[in-house]
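Late entry, evening session. Most of the bench is empty. Finally got around to the prediction I had been postponing all week. Sequence below, unchanged from the version circulated by S.P.
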Amino acid sequence: MKISDSKSRYRAFTLVELLVVIAIIAVLVAISAPAVFSFRNAADKAIAISNMRQLQTANVSYASDHYSTFVSPMEGGLVEWWKNPEFVSQLKSAEATYGSGGVPNVDLPLSLMDPPIAKKRAPGYDELAGSYAYNTQGMTGSGYKLSLVADPGRTMAFITADFSAAGEVNEGNSVANIAYRHDKKAIAVYYDGHAAPITQTEVSGVPGGATGGFWDANPDA
């Protein structure tokens, strides 16, 4: 007995069935997209927190080699903290020296930058100053002495910022230069080495003071 042609062939999708499949896929994508976005944001935030802890660890190591004095904003009035070879050496785990023409050899991997900045190739994306800024509130030209930091657990050392901050922030220009790019929060690392997200409202409400303010590490100097 002959098997009919209609039964010997694979049954094709109808237009309606194809549209239903496409609709189901679209719904699944719509449901999963926020979760993927949230996961990426959480990963970026975790990397930024880790990087900022490394920054302050490098700062502490620098201080241990410089009479307990943290890196200064401008070494000798010429080299910014993020181009200071001795400071950068602490981050590289290798020597960073001055190259030809007095230019510091301070190349760092993009993995040390703030992920949103590195991904967007934003201004300064390949420099520390394009991702983070140093708190210089009340700091003298030679930096802070470790023994003079009134409250290391409450005093901010570095914070996420835009390249326009020129690598430095203080209480006077905080709103303009700090970058709240991690779920509308900035990431700050404190002098005791812990890092945490902080909102613009929280930053605006933490002026320096004798009890160990957010900004001024040495308020009585």
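Two things to note before I forget:
The chain has a mean pLDDT of 83.
Residues 15-58+108-204 form one domain.
Will write this up properly tomorrow.
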